[in-house]
């Protein structure tokens, strides 16, 4: 199951590059990725958005974003039975940190487990913080 999320490009607006992937049916998929600017002066806001796909890998028990073959951001979980899951680890490559990627992964994982009525036991401190903030949000 693939999900798209978008976040403002002023967060991710250094030098962009494109990876072209060939899937099994010879359809080509273009994924716009970025290379983080080394100097803050190189970063300037723009109006376009950048999208990455969040994939839920049930077999490996993780939600992930693949940036390239050597870089992925992910949240690992473990099924405990009785409709319980243990969310225990979040990792984002250093060059993609502080961009909102971990938060988007967390929100997708929380939404999935809420929608499937599974109890979440959260031991990852980052996920605990995000979960606490989302529960304190007042929706009008």
From TrEMBL:
Name of this protein: Protein NATD1
Domain N-acetyltransferase: 55-140
Pfam families named in the record: Acetyltransf_CG (PF14542)
Gene name as annotated: NATD1
Similarity comment: family membership: Belongs to the NATD1 family.
InterPro entries linked to this entry: Acyl_CoA_acyltransferase, Gcn5-rel_NAT, GNAT_YJDJ
Naturally occurring in which organism (per UniProt): Dermatophagoides farinae (American house dust mite)
